[in-house]
Amino acid sequence: MNHIVLFEPEIPQNTGNIMRTCVATNTKLHLIKPLGFSLDEAHLKRSAVNYIDKLDYEVYENFDDFKSKNKGIYYYLTRYGRRSHTSFDYSNKDNLDLYFIFGKESTGIPKKILKNDLSHCLRIPMTSNVRALNVSNSVAIVIYEVLRQQNFNDLLREEPDDDNHKGKDYLER
Description:
Layout: E1 2-7, H1 12-25, E2 28-32, H2 42-48, E3 57-60, H3 63-69, E4 73-77, E5 83-84, E6 98-102, H4 111-114, E7 121-123, H5 135-149
Parallel strand pairs: 1-2, 1-6, 2-3, 4-6, 4-7, 5-7
Helix pairs in contact: 1-2, 1-5
């Protein structure tokens, strides 16, 4: 199973966008305190739209609490990573839980955490004109690369034809 982990997220709109991405990709979300917002804030609910009730998520008191309850392979997204996010094999043939950890918007993941697992620190390639991408964009980039390598698991490849969707033949009609 794939997991997105937000270490001390600060901005509710980013977390709301990530919640929507997690629902769209059947990915569990883990939130590590302290949070820079309340989970019932109007901004957060607005960003996650009507999907928050479909979200599989858990909140932890701190990073040690998270690590004690979750076993698998941890990947850390950091601008200091020396390998691209596309250079890892996420095909997950052994059915291990894969955790993709993203730091808080202002300072990222603490160095003391990163330096304990340098071989799993990864970076999204970009120019030197910016320090980092927005965290919700980074989550989307990474989880879709993971899913691409996993052949998109059970995600829909065509628009369903039901009360909430227009159907796969919408463009032809």
